[in-house]
Design brief:
about 475 residues, alpha/beta, Rossmann fold, 2 domains, eight-stranded mixed sheet, six-stranded parallel sheet, about 15% strand, binds nicotinamide-adenine-dinucleotide, binds uridine-5'-diphosphate-glucuronic acid
């Protein structure tokens, strides 16, 4: 056999050897995470499986520009490991059968139906994985929750697995992922910490150690934290809630800055130098997006409400309320500044992704701001360096605010920023892509209608320079 696997030395000198890892779900987490594990440990075979054939085909594409996920540095990692010990496949059953350790990394979106609609996490995909593992497994497996899950989910997974009657032993671990999109490879290669939760029984501790050994190949041991299952599951929701809360907290001060003459960037700097507060995640914006902050906080709110913890639920829900307000407020400011009407006016959008360096648009503020402006009959002209036109149209259509035909009349997508901004009355910076700062702003000004407005939803452009060209420049929180 070509592969040796990773041995787990136990006190009793037994070895738990991990030769093959399988990951169910080849998405934003499963793909990059498994690619990095495969790159770091050539002796372990890593199979990433998904039911989505197109996604797997893209992961297997010869042309690395066609990988389904854009992440800086990911192409190099995939190119090194793919075909050596990293494989992408739709053969879910085959991979489950072969693996010693199975990561569940499927989507856990907010429920759109039934009890908990609009708040609870939809666990149907996770449960399906557990049932499939139970059906297929003929040897002992360590099952790792990589998806973000409500606290106590491991209990349900355990119940399903333990009632299969096949005599196979399963150990469940929680190993939440903390990577952020746009910096996924860097976050995986040098994580602040790795968190592993498991049962505090002899076999549970053995399973925890097996996963510790995987990460310890490249992560310093003192950065690998081990806990029980419930602390690990809850820590992931808590981390996202705290991060989102910081963004909403700084955004909650932007209106106050605008009406008092204070500058939010100065305030952020002043408070961020306090080592107890720290400088990160204090950048005022059009509001946070991404697939997880809103979903995970809603889930936290739902859990609190289900347990009758109404004050805790209300506290966390306010983070979402503030974020929705920030998006609406930005759209409203554009309308108000453009003399109360944007009907038939062209408004350029720079950026559609929810943050820079990703092609992910889930819950991006761009979608909601465009929708509100289209309600006012504005014509939106968008340029984003990485997001496809198909993606933008489907994001807007998914809101069901109007027919697809109407949406496509109001949303025009360009692959050249200067063309997107030509003939516009105003432009809005929605995503903080670095390239926007280096544009020829005189050329953009010349092509726009006057007065030419800039609404900088990320405070990234040079106000002085733009005002000297002639733009009317409006930042967030200044
Ligand atoms: P994603 O939607 O990009 O990928 C999930 C994949 O799972 C999809 O390709 C889907 O086809 C596949 N899938 C679903 N059910 C399946 C099944 N039964 N068998 C095989 N494949 C199946 O989702 P994601 O962004 O990778 O997120 C996955 C989980 O990780 C979520 O719980 C999320 O909260 C969490 N998370 C995400 C991020 C992030 O940055 N996106 C970061 C940390 C944690
Ligand atoms: C976030 C967390 O940072 C990750 O640790 C976590 O693993 C992940 O969610 C997840 O569970 O999915 P991500 O959503 O990819 O990662 O990106 P962030 O960098 O956290 O940004 C989220 C949103 O907040 C973006 O829209 C970003 O523009 C916005 N943001 C962030 C601000 O508006 N201001 C800031 O100061 C920071």
């Amino acid at each position: 056999m070509l592969l040796n696997g990773i041995g787990n030395s136990l006190k009793n000198n037994q070895k738990m050897s991990i030769n093959t890892i399988c990951c169910i779900g080849a998405g934003y987490v499963g793909g990059p995470t498994m690619s990095v594990i495969a790159q770091k440990i050539p002796s372990v075979k890593v199979i990433v499986v998904d039911v989505n054939q197109a996604r797997i085909d893209a992961w297997n594409s010869e042309n690395l520009d066609e990988l389904p996920i854009f992440e800086p540095g990911l192409d190099a990692v995939v190119s090194e490991a793919r075909g050596r010990n990293l494989f992408f496949s739709t053969d879910v059953e085959g991979a489950i059968h072969e693996a010693d350790m199975i990561f569940i990394s499927v989507n856990t979106p907010t429920k759109t139906y039934g009890d908990g609609k609009g708040m609870a996490a939809d666990l149907q995909y996770v449960e399906l994985c557990a049932r499939q593992i139970a059906k297929i497994a003929t040897s002992d497996k360590i099952v790792v929750e990589k998806s973000t899950l409500p606290v106590k989910t491991a209990e349900a997974i355990k119940d399903i697995l333990e009632n299969t009657g096949t005599g196979v032993n399963f150990e469940i671990l929680s190993n939440p992922e903390f990577l952020a999109e746009g910096t996924a490879v860097q976050d995986l290669e040098t994580p602040d910490r790795v968190l592993i939760g498991g049962d505090q029984t002899e076999s549970g501790l053995k399973a925890i150690q097996a996963l510790v050994n995987i990460y310890a190949t490249w992560v310093p041991k003192n950065q690998i934290i081990t806990t029980n299952l419930w602390s690990s599951e809850l820590s992931k929701l808590t981390a996202n809630a705290f991060l989102a809360q910081r963004v909403s907290s700084i955004n909650a001060l932007t209106e106050l800055c605008e009406s008092t003459g204070a500058n939010i960037d100065d305030v952020a700097k002043a408070i961020g130098t306090d080592s107890r507060i720290g400088p990160k995640f204090l950048k005022a914006s059009v509001g946070f997006g991404g697939s997880c902050f809103q979903k995970d906080i809603l889930n936290l709110v739902y859990i609190c409400k289900s347990l009758g913890l109404d004050e805790a639920a209300d506290y966390w829900e306010q983070v979402i309320i503030m974020n929705n307000h920030q998006r609406s407020r930005f759209a409203k400011q554009i309308v108000t500044s453009l003399y109360g009407t944007v009907a038939m006016k062209k408004i350029g959008f720079l950026g559609w992704a929810f943050k820079k360096d990703t092609n992910d648009t889930r819950e991006s503020a761009a979608i909601y701001i465009a929708d509100k402006l289209i309600d006012e009959h504005a014509q939106i002209q968008v340029y984003d360096p990485k997001v496809t036109a198909v993606r933008m149209h489907s994001d807007l259509n998914a809101l069901n605010s109007r027919t697809e035909a109407e949406n496509s009349k109001f949303l025009e997508i360009h692959n050249n920023p200067y063309k997107a901004l030509e003939g516009t009355h105003a432009l809005a910076v929605i995503t903080e892509w670095d390239e926007f700062k280096a544009y020829d702003w005189q050329k953009i000004y010349d092509g726009m209608l006057k007065p030419a407005f800039i609404f900088d939803g990320r405070n990234i452009l040079n106000q002085k320079m733009l005002e000297s060209i002639g733009f009317i420049y409006k930042a967030i929180g200044r």
